[in-house]
Amino acid sequence: MRLVTISDIRAAAALVAPAVLRTPLLPCPWADDDRPLWLKPENLQPVGAFKIRGAFHALARLPEEVRVLGVVAYSSGNHAQAVAYAAKRFGVPAVIVVPDTTPRVKIDATRSHGAEVHTVPVAERESRARYLSHQRGSTLIPPFDHVDVIAGQGTVGLEIAEDLPDVRTVLVPVSGGGLISGVAVAIKALCPDARVIGVEPALAADAAESLRAGRRSSSWSPALRARTIADGLRAEPSELTFAHMRELVDGIVAVSEADIRAAVPWLVHNSRLVAEPSGAVTVAAYLNHRDELPPGRTVAVVSGGNLDPALLSELLAE
Amino acid sequence: MRLVTISDIRAAAALVAPAVLRTPLLPCPWADDDRPLWLKPENLQPVGAFKIRGAFHALARLPEEVRVLGVVAYSSGNHAQAVAYAAKRFGVPAVIVVPDTTPRVKIDATRSHGAEVHTVPVAERESRARYLSHQRGSTLIPPFDHVDVIAGQGTVGLEIAEDLPDVRTVLVPVSGGGLISGVAVAIKALCPDARVIGVEPALAADAAESLRAGRRSSSWSPALRARTIADGLRAEPSELTFAHMRELVDGIVAVSEADIRAAVPWLVHNSRLVAEPSGAVTVAAYLNHRDELPPGRTVAVVSGGNLDPALLSELLAE
Predict the structure, then answer these.
(1) In this structure, are B175 and B189 located in the same domain?
(2) What is the mean pLDDT of chain B?
(3) Do residues B29 and B101 share a domain?
């Protein structure tokens, strides 16, 4: 199995530059003195999440005669928007298959980019996407299980390494593992003293269990993982992303639902950022699990900011 | 009267770099096709507002033997936080005089930076600040009526010109006029085809009246201006900032209270940014006064993001 390299990520950075915001590191004046914190606000991307990096890169890497036939994606939401937006930028058709539990704000945003959206039961989304891809001759863009997608997400890590070369800890949300795999490749190549630590909901803590076991765990059913409010963190790593994580990730922190819910208003009031629960888990880890984190300069990746207005109001009222 | 020059602003940019975030321009996928929009999110600065630029620059320009005696500021809030934060960065004492109508969140944030805060009736804030400055031998840092403050705020315009050289319209909130004066100097020097348009609340539309009259208007009492929810836009230009505006600003758009209130949740849901009402007026102008704006690439400066949590919840519920 070929793992992504830092050269892949550097090449991806050049390809995605026209469509991806180079997000700044935001210093947090309210951080610990011995563990200064910067946020990497991927919620400020045009689609509201880091997913635009991998999706745009995957489309950019398709031969033009293939790309023009269109793309298909299945996703819990942000990848859907990202593929739809990338397809619009390239002027090619996109079909998106989303589970019927997806927040409406994400479906509306996907449609607003001109994509054809199919809503299906969560267990059928991959098979439906494969069927549509076959039927139309279009290319399936997987949400994380692809080297081009991982290399695109890795540009987050490349930017962190360029902007804060003496970073000691990078906190990254973990779901399917595309983001943390790419970030870990970049950080380990460029900042060998830094640790890359994943964060996942305690209610969907399959990655930690798998890393402890040394193989992908199968004890976390989709129904179990669906309990967390962090709807973007309910997927499981693939063989490809798990291989990256086993080699490169230093640890996983699990955060409670209460801490995730509190991190959303914390970011609103302290950093003027709107993050979705999945995007706020790294801040939840920083605020509540400091004893599990090494000292030194810390970056928390805030991975996305798409949440239903009603949920945001609910979380702000708690 | 000496006006600020582009050389002053370039020098300021070098001096403020250690403390000021170089904010990115955020493209807005939901903008008009004939008037594409980028946001300049100054609410992401460490103190939550552009004011850090002018305040840090003013302190940086003081001779060290003067700076160590400390600084004094009077402000409706964000300038207070900015001076307190800049003083902490330089390790010198700060005394801040704020009107008793200042939102608690701004007072708490100012104290959290180690400043001594004095709360007084709004009409007394300048006299109290001058008294404290005289009593302690410390330097008064005015919120806008100073070339160093204007040059610092002008770094916002310098960054816009560098990042989007073919910008056609820059929308800037107007209160005392420090921000728009500095931005206009930079934009007119570097992008001579671009227009700089101020935005103010219709309930505090003194700048438009003054520009029409060709002299500073006196028909807007503090009590009248206090009616707007945009608590950062209740000041009036000084002779110095008015001289800049008369020479360099192309027009003023007035926005209603309803449009200001709606712009705050709009930014939350569409751009994942928390802006205070004063910071959201430019987006209110873009959304509701398109017929008053030229076509072409447009930048809206989102000047700040400090608002009481209760007010944010109220605006999100409307």
Answers:
(1) yes
(2) 94
(3) no
Contact, B52 vs B19, CB < 8 A?
yes
Q: ipTM score of the complex?
A: 0.93
Q: At residue B218, does pLDDT exceed 90?
A: no
Domain count, chain B: 2
Please judge whether B309 and A265 are an interchain contact, meaning their C-beta atoms are less than 8 angstroms apart: yes
What is the token pair recorded at A88?
Answer: 């619009």
Q: Taking a C-beta distance cutoff of 8 angstroms, is the pair A116, A93 a contact?
A: yes
B66-90: pLDDT as tens digits: 999 999 998 768 898 999 999 999 9
The verdict on a CB contact (< 8 Å) between A272 and B22 is no
Do the domain assignments include residue A302? yes
Residue B181, domain member (yes or no): yes
Return d(Cα A285, Cα A269) in angstroms, integer: 17
Residue whose entry in the numeric block shows the structure tokens 């070339």:
B147
Q: How does pLDDT run across B14-52, given as a tens digit for each residue?
A: 999 999 999 999 999 878 889 999 999 999 999 999 999
B121–chain A nearest CA distance, Å: 27
Distance CA(B19)–CA(B183), nearest Å, equals 19
B257, pLDDT greater than 90: yes
Chain B residues within 8 Å of chain A (Cβ atoms)? 21-24, 26-30, 41, 43-44, 46-48, 85, 105, 112-113, 265, 268-269, 271-275, 305-306, 309, 312-313, 316-317
Pairwise CA distance, residues A175 & B15, whole Å:
42
- Disruptive mutation site among B85, B89, B164, B272 for chain A (greatest number of A CBs within 10 Å): B272
Judge whether residue A260 has pLDDT over 90: yes
Provide the 10 A C-beta neighbour count for residue A218.
11
A18-35: b (≥16 Cβ within 10 Å) or e: ebbbebbbbbbbebeeeb
* CB-CB under 8 Å, A272 with B43: yes
Neighbours of B201 (CB within 10 A): 26
**CA gap A35, A43 in Å, rounded:** 23
Other residues' Cβ atoms within 10 Å of the Cβ of residue B34: 8
CA–CA gap between residue A17 and residue B16 (Å, rounded) = 27
Report the catalytic residues of B: 51, 303
**In terms of residues, how long is chain B?**
318
Interatomic CA distance for residues B135 and B149, integer angstroms: 23
H or E stretch covering A187: helix A178-190
Give me the residues paired with residue B197 across strands: B171, B251
Q: Do A176 and A268 belong together in one domain?
A: yes
Cα–Cα distance, B76 to B110 (Å, whole number): 11
The alpha carbon dihedral of B304, B305, B311, B315 has a sign of positive
Domain CATH number, residue A99? 3.40.50.1100
Q: CA–CA distance from B39 to each of A109, B3, B57, B214, B298 (Å)?
A: 19, 27, 23, 30, 9
Q: How many other C-beta atoms are found inside a 10 Å radius of the C-beta of residue A251?
A: 15
According to the model, what pLDDT value does residue B77 have?
80
- State mean pLDDT over B3-7: 98
What is the span of the domain harbouring residue A114? 52-140
Residue A76, pLDDT score: 63
Q: How far is CA B59 from CA B144, B201, B238, in A?
A: 14, 31, 21
Rounded average pLDDT over B215-238: 90
pLDDT tens-place string over residues A69-120: 999 998 768 898 999 999 999 999 999 998 888 778 778 888 888 999 999 9
